[in-house]
Amino acid sequence: MPAPTLIAFDADDTLWPNQPHYDQAEAQLYELLTHYADADTLSRRFNEVQRRDLPLLGYGAKSFIICMVETIISLTDGRVTGREIQQILDHGKRLLDYPIEPLPDVRAVLDVLQEQGHRLMLLTKGDLFDQESKLARSGLGDYFAHVEIVSEKNEATYRRLLQRYGLRPEQFVMIGNSLKSDVLPVARLGARAVHVPYHTTWVMEEVPAEQLVGVPFHRVEALAEVVTYLEALADDDA
């Protein structure tokens, strides 16, 4: 395969922490609402509501807030108080403006790739306003020649992006922490996928092991290893 001409990076939990903020907000809300149900019951119902509502609401803090409110209204048969709903809203809103600090090695990796002349893309899914705000707060925007914020990362989305940028699959590399969103659909199209594991994964992004059988992708233990991997691809193409 030829060396890639476009290298795309996922954002949340690849370039900066995201899921830990949601995990913390969720735990705080469960503590707030513990007089209605235990944490396991709340978590189970919340995940059911999110799974059901994702096609309608999409991803991000606003979806999180709506699903949490819907969960507690359902669990309490409407007995939840207005004050408690306001507390849910306040916790959720904090997910829209927390400071963005790039993960270790992110700037160093992007510096090297930019110096080597690679064309870089930020490719993330979620709410447009929320993701644009995160990118602005991260200070990483100048590294990317292209920014794509999509509602879903599936084969149809990647196929559409390849067509938009006039690329064959073998000219594209996707780098991210999600096997579901950053690896499987990319590999199935014949493009290169690089998995950078993160210590926590949202339950909606988990993938059964059997879905990975026979799927070709490259795994690195840290983002810094991406540079070596891309250099090897260039050497193979030389």
Automatic annotation (TrEMBL):
Q: Is-annotated flag, keyword Hydrolase?
A: yes
Q: Which UniProt keywords apply?
A: Hydrolase
Origin organism lineage: Bacteria, Pseudomonadati, Bacteroidota, Cytophagia, Cytophagales
Cytoplasm among keywords: no
Q: Which Gene3D superfamilies match?
A: HAD superfamily/HAD-like (3.40.50.1000), Putative phosphatase, domain 2 (1.10.150.240)
Q: Which InterPro entries match?
A: HAD-like_sf, HAD_sf, PGP-like_dom2, S-2-haloacid_dehalogenase
Could you tell me which species this protein originates from? Hymenobacter jeollabukensis
What superkingdom heads the lineage? Bacteria
List, in alphabetical order, the Gene Ontology terms for molecular function in this entry: hydrolase activity
What's this protein's name? HAD family hydrolase
